[in-house]
Amino acid sequence: MKACCSSFTCSSSDDKHFIGRTYDQYGDISTNKIVIIPKNYEILLTFQTNESNRKQTVDYAMVGMNVSMLGTPLLTEGMNEQGLMGTLLFFPHFAKFDTKKAEYTVNSGLMLPFVLGKSKNIEEAVQLMNNINVINELNTGLDLPCHYMFSDRTGESVVVEPLENGLKIYRSEIGVLTNAPTYEWQKINLCNYLGTSNLARDPQKVVNYTISELGEGSGYLGLPGDYTPVSRFVRLAFSKNFMPTPVDEIDAVNKMFNVFECVDVPEGAIYTPPEERSPYHEKTLCTSVMCAESLKYYFSTSTNCRVCCIDLSKELNNTSTALKEISIPFEQDILNLN
Fold first, then answer.
1. Catalytic residue check, 5
2. What is the pLDDT of residues 135-173, one digit of tens each?
3. Which of 146, 208, 220, 199 is nearest to 177 (CA)?
4. 329 has a pLDDT exceeding 80
5. Which H/E stretch holds residue 250?
């Protein structure tokens, strides 16, 4: 698995709270579905091990992007009926597995449905994750080094990484996450961009020659423009910082989708030669935003820019304990005006 995902949190003036992410990967997500996981549905915590509590029944309904055909939900992002939201991002080279004795053994790819299914809010999620030992199960053919970001109706951002001695949990953080290296390193690296601003830089005299900006945007001079995790973290952190506070939910969704454009990976920018991988290009395949208060899950794909919405609140009176899968509309939806 290789992926270049980015995620950040946001709050609006009317006290709503959001988390969003880009889903960047090789190939496509044609086998993925938006899934509604009902209350009392039984999930797996591992793919192959025989742990005594490998099966768990969830206490809260969820909606999210599901990597289907694995026999149990694997969510790349999701939200439960209490407004707890989480995103899963690729975390290569630095993730450590099976590093502590704990009550629960959980495959790194199956973390979100377990935490969202058993936790009402951040406090309960943190308490649960302190009792989790994360494993990778390489024998399944799924190499899933992951880290996570959670938020809820308080607006707190929590980053969680599998490191030595178990899960490292960062509370009340800046609400930005990409990939490797570690979150703590990414925050320190921001110091290299001290002075970044959304204001124009003042003219400056060099020897006897005055220089000034040639066009708008000089406050961002020096920010890296490539698609590595480090560069995307820097751009996303400052873009979140300078983003005007959204007025309401729709304004937040629009602004978050716009900010994500600064880290979107266009097809062709990341290429792997044919002898090593097929398909050969990585790109941003899907962008999603979730609202903790309305329980609405918004998304668009690389092939259909129209924003679609799934309302989890409309599913809560359903007494079925079966998964509900919703197909993703991949074909471009164009509004013809004449």
1. yes
2. 998 877 788 999 999 999 999 999 999 999 999 999 999
3. 146
4. yes
5. helix 249-260
Alpha carbons 267 and 161: distance in angstroms, whole number? 29
> What CA–CA distance (Å, rounded) separates 117 from 134?
17
173, 19 in Cβ contact below 8 A? no
Residue that has been written with the tokens 């006897």 in this structure: 208
Q: What angle do CA 154, 260, 282 make, to 5 degrees?
A: 125
pLDDT-based confidence at 36, cuts 50/70/90? very high
What are the two backbone dihedrals, phi and then psi, of residue 103, each rounded to the nearest 5 degrees?
-65, -35
pLDDT band at residue 276, thresholds of 50, 70 and 90?
Answer: low
**Catalytic, out of 4, 5, 10, 291:** 5
Residue 239's identity, in one-letter code, is S
Looking at the DSSP bridge assignments, the partners of residue 290 are 19, 297
Name residues whose C-beta falls within 8 Å of residue 41's C-beta, 6 or more positions apart in sequence: 57, 58, 117, 321, 322, 323
The pLDDT value given to residue 281: 86
Q: Cα separation of 165 and 99, whole Å? A: 5
Q: Are strands 132-135 and 104-107 parallel, antiparallel or unpaired?
A: parallel
pTM of the model: 0.95
Integer Cα distance of 324 and 223 in angstroms? 43
Per-residue tokens: 312: 């989890």
